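Progress against Task 2.4 (sequence-to-structure conversion) is shown through the following example record, which the project officer requested during the mid-term review.
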Amino acid sequence: MQVHIRKARVIDPQSAFHDKVVDLLVEDGIIKNIAASISSKADTVIEAKGLCVSPGWVDVFADYREPGFEHKETIHSGLAAAAAGGFTDVFAAPNTQPALSTKSIIQFILQKANGNVVGLHPIGAATQNTDGKDLAEMLDMRANGAVAFSDGWKPVQHANLMMKALEYVKAFHGTVIQIPVDASLASGGLMNEGVVSTGLGMAGIPVLAESIMVHRDIELLRYTGSKLHITGVSTGESIEMIRKAKTEGLAITCSVTPYHLALTDESLTGYDSAFKVSPPLRSEADRMALIAGLNDGTIDCIATHHRPHEWDAKAKEFEYASDGMAVQESAFNILWDTLKEYISIERLVEAMTIMPRVIFGLEGKEITKGHKASMTIFSTSGSHTLLQKDQRSASRNNPFIGKKLSGKILGIINNNQIHLNK
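Structure tokens generated for the chain above:
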């Protein structure tokens, strides 16, 4: 396999070719040459206006539902969505049935993903079957391929159990991932508590349901001296607490979803359950605080929180509809359309590839001659309409389908394979 990428801007601060427009030649999975101009008889030639290449992107939280919920998404369809979205590596949430809480289930999903162009990295459950009662065998799962530990959509509510989880992972320098939701304060809520929820007559989820969990977990992190990653931050208050904790030297990192950066609770004025997510969409002030936090590095990386659902899980009364959006394959379009006026493409790429690898100990992927090719190929120019017929995910709960958004993913090269979008 020989691929010739013409006149592409390299976005990789680790590379000597960073911010230069060059030709790249990839042969049998190796970057054979990088130069101002290359002559080749490559099988595949890639060129486009505004063409960019960067090290392969990493999604640090996505839900592929297999085993147990294959009617929503399978590992195969999920990884196809990831490739279409420009991701070369994905962290899979543990909320399957059975949960990713034993080494045998970890081995099962790794075997299912073996040989794919996208690398799958399972997040092992922090507690047995994600039931929040007893710790799972995290060391055993780590030895068999778990990249981090979390109860995913069922964040650990018991403070003592969370403390024990943080202490446990210290033995092997592991990281606990937590979605910041206090279930008791969020109970019964359907959307962000505020002016919009009051006007719609819907029960609200207060900012306090997130901030009290962030505060608690920061204190537990301070006590244990461990490593914590908070994913899906949605409020300005959370950002301020995390920013302060970082200045104190605590090993805390965080990620944000594309939809929390792009949307607010105003999207719910039509009672459309497509916009029902957890944590909920917040206010415009919160959204701008998230953008500022991503820009200044308080927010380290991007997590799509890709959460596929079958049609009837969403097409019902708002109160009973399931939470989540399946946005992995449109994540870049959402992000660039939202952020291009606020954040440089270099900062966005850093959040999508470099920081996730540093935080979770993945192998670095540098765009350099002689290195294995693991890269995302994309364009920042023009716009692209997301069509339902092009969606690779098994589910369609994506409110951005049919929308014209900025930028385009052309493809990925990874694991000695190439995936190109049409």
